Q: What sequence folds into this?
């Protein structure tokens, strides 16, 4: 099942990619003695982690809703199978009566 990408997910993905690139760039600069402050790096890292948590929470909520809707169809299918089994039982019973087994 293909997931529909809505506007919120698109914006969140773009922000996360931009922040991830920024964090990697700042990390490289910090390692070679560059200009960003450690507080800027930490802030960007915290925002990136919070963004990932929001994304994961949102995806798990969408998955939970999808599973809930799927089980409605499973219930319908089980009821159809029960009806078919009852029809088969009646047919077998009538065949046994006709054959007098």
A:
């Amino acid at each position: 099942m293909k997931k529909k990408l809505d506007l919120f997910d698109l914006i969140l993905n773009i922000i996360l990619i931009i922040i991830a690139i920024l964090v990697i760039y700042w990390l490289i600069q910090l390692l070679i003695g560059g200009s960003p402050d450690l507080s800027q790096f930490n802030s960007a890292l915290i925002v990136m982690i919070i963004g990932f948590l929001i994304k994961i929470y949102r995806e798990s909520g969408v998955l939970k809703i999808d599973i809930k809707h799927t089980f409605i169809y499973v219930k319908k299918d089980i009821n159809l199978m029960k009806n078919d089994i009852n029809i088969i039982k009646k047919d077998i019973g009538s065949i046994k009566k006709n054959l007098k087994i």
In short: The first helix runs from residue 7 to 31. The chain has one domain: 7-99. Helices lie at 7-31, 38-99.
